[in-house]
Structures are given as structure tokens and as C-alpha cells.
Prior knowledge:
The protein is an alpha+beta fold. The chain has a domain at 8-74 and 124-193: Hypothetical Protein Pfu-838710-001, CATH 2.40.320.10. The protein is built from five helices and ten strands, in the order βαβββββαβαβββαα. A hairpin with a 2-residue loop joins β3 and β4. It is elongated, with a radius of gyration of 18 Å.
Amino acid sequence: xxxxxxxxxxxxxxxxxxxxxxxxxxxxxxxxxxxxxxxxxxxxxxxxxxxxxxxxxxxxxxxxxxxxxxxxxxxxxxxxxxxxxxxxxxxxxxxxxxxxxxxxxxxxxxxxxxxxxxxxxxxxxxxxxxxxxxxxxxxxxxxxxxxxxxxxxxxxxxxxxxxxxxxxxxxxxxxxxxxxxxxxxxxxxxxxxxxxxxxxxxxxxxxx
Length: 208
């Protein structure tokens, strides 16, 4: 099997993306529209493992490296609910970097995991995220413009992904994203829920 190379990413968050959206639509038609409802698990113990759950499937990605201001993420684990307690102990909680709770079951459904393990934990938070994503292709990069609701709070995100760092950097200029801060979902959600402080840069560069 050919090796799957993790893509580099640039993602920005703002209340709106006026000229960025105009340029994206001028360069590429909307290729697809997708909607999803996901649960992100936020941990006060780390900013390098991104955990989300969709359709009873847990996906944890780890930050591999940062190159020229772009982040490269790689899958750390995938799991399905109901989930055995051994997997939660050995693979999930080490990614959170927080104290291990007491487990009273041999396996957990998603509802049991959220209500009995995550919500009572002082350093963890379960956050509901709804996404409506529009997909584009910009300079050979996967591009996205999305409306995102974080526990009901609406924000927008624009994203570029590729294995080619220089292609992303060129695409940023093409759609006027150079002055925005690179903010991944993990950090953006933490800022929205108050687990991390808001950026001290201008509102234009990074609102969340």
C-alpha cells in the first residue's frame, strides 16, 4: 500500500470572510456542501491532540510539526462506541494529558462516556459543534469555507490543505488570507468556551 502523507493545514476563524469568500468563489465553483454534527472533547491538559466524535466514531489527531506557519496533523487513533474501557484507559486518556478517572463499566456507550466520564471531569469539556462546509479547490489545495456553531455560538472558518507547503502559501495570497492567524479547531473551540484566552491580535487577523 502507498504511504499516506499527512496534509499541512492553514485555518482561520472570523465572524465573516467577505473578500476571502469572494476570491474563493471567483477562483473555484463550490464543489460540495456537507453538514455534520460533531462532539469535540476539550482538555485543559494539552493542545496537541484533537479529539472529535461523529456518528459514534472517535477520531484523535496529533500535531506532527509546524512548517512555515502551517500545521501538519496525523491520525493518532480511531475508535467506535460502545468502547471498551481498556481502549479508553490506554489510548484515549493518555491523549488528554489529565488525571485518569475511575471507571465503573467494562465498556461505554457514547452517552455513558460523555455523561459519566467527560462531564464530571474538572479538566475536560464536551462541546457540540455543527458544521456546514463548502468545498473548493484553490491552487491545487483542498479549500473550505464553513459556517460553524460551537455550543450554539456562530463563527466562520476558512481552510487550505495540501501536502505541498508552497502551494498553500501561494493559495493564501490568492484568496487574501495572509493577514489571518493560523488557528486549528482545537484552539478555536477552547477560545469560544473560555478554556483559552482570545488572541491579542486585531479582530481582523483572528477573532477566535
